[in-house]
């Protein structure tokens, strides 16, 4: 009000959570952007860090996976948590169906991933892996479908109308021994590489005794935010298919 002194307000360069983890500030949402996906509109890289579960390391029983999803500055964008029961996790192992709930920094569920139970053997090309991505929950925005190939991991990224948009091709030997493993994101004709999903080497001890993995996802800055979210779903599918088994189990 006029005549009252103006009190200086504190300025925070980075908002953070209770544990001091820096949060990425929410940018203005683009047109037709599902709520919560505005964080993806201004970035071209995502870092996915799986948390180490001490109970799983000590007992060998599979626990629900949890992940922190960050931008290239280390600011947290989302938190992802698997939602499956004990029997499903420990009977089906890495092939298990799951629901992955992705929450923003305010605890709101903004993305849901659904992986149905499918055969993970390359000998059965009629029943291949897939994952559906919903944002907001209940509204499909895309799918990741495994394509049969005798040697290479191959996937197709589809939009909400089941139309093919991009391709993903992995290496012939999926081994993360002392090096990153890159899955290239390509155009439909596979002539141009537009991004990649990289499983990052996390060190000998962590790789040998846990199945906690780190991933990096790169894509064009101007890519549709829905397709960026679908690539995040592809990252989780790749993690479960190729890297979820711990060193002891292998």
Automatic annotation (TrEMBL):
It is found in: Membrane. InterPro entries: Scramblase (IPR005552), Tubby-like_C (IPR025659). GO terms for cellular component: plasma membrane. It is a single-pass type II membrane protein. Residues 1-25 are annotated as: Disordered. GO terms for molecular function: phospholipid scramblase activity. Keywords: Calcium, Lipoprotein, Membrane, Palmitate, Phosphoprotein, Transmembrane, Transmembrane helix. Pfam families: Scramblase. Transmembrane segments: none annotated. Its cofactor is Ca(2+). Belongs to the phospholipid scramblase family. May mediate accelerated ATP-independent bidirectional transbilayer migration of phospholipids upon binding calcium ions that results in a loss of phospholipid asymmetry in the plasma membrane. This is Phospholipid scramblase. It comes from Neovison vison.
